């Protein structure tokens, strides 16, 4: 469907920065905590990195939440007849497209937050033990 490629469906740059930045920051927190654990010989840095990842998840969730709100507002306020006339689709197709994007955005936000929360909490609770276990394998 043509409508899915339109600018009002795509992520805005702040939404992209929030989601991508949150994931990149989580990876940097993980890498930084492993580096500090090795350099300082203190595995508790991994616990701190896990706590940082949990805090970072809010940034990623905020980006997806903003997108969901924007699309929901657009769904209510969009004069779909203008879009339909411009792109040769029915008003119902425009509404269905927006509904699908809203649902996809909610799913993405849920799984992103769930992944970061689970990873962060495992590292926060057991990071030092995991570090010791990995050091013993070497």
Structure, explained:
The protein has 138 residues and is mostly helical. It has one domain. Helices cover 85% and strands 0% of the residues. It is built from 4 helices and no strands. The chain is elongated, with a radius of gyration of 21 Å. It starts with 12 loop residues before the first helix and ends with a helix. The N terminus is likely disordered.
Q: Residue-averaged pLDDT, rounded?
A: 80
State the distance separating the first and last CA atoms. 53 Å
SSE topology string: HHHH
Number of helices: 4
| Rg, Cα atoms, Å | 21 Å
What is the helix content? over 70%
- Strand percentage lies at under 5%
Give the uncertain stretches in residue-range form. 1-5
Structural class based on helices, strands and sheet pairing: mainly alpha
Integer count of domains: 1
What's the multimeric state? single chain
Shape estimate: elongated
Main sheet properties: none
The count of strands amounts to: 0
């Amino acid at each position: 469907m043509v409508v899915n490629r339109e600018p009002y469906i795509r992520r805005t740059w702040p939404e992209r920065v929030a989601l991508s930045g949150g994931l990149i920051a989580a990876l940097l927190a993980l890498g930084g905590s492993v580096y500090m654990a090795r350099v300082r010989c203190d595995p508790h840095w991994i616990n701190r990195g896990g706590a940082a990842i949990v805090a970072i998840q809010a940034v990623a969730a905020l980006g997806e939440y903003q997108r969901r709100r924007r699309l929901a507002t657009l769904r209510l306020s969009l004069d779909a007849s203008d879009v339909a006339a411009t792109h040769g689709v029915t008003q119902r197709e425009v509404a269905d497209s927006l509904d699908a994007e809203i649902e996809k955005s909610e799913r993405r936000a849920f799984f992103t937050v769930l992944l970061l929360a689970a990873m962060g909490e495992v590292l926060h609770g057991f990071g030092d033990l995991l570090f010791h276990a990995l050091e013993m394998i070497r």
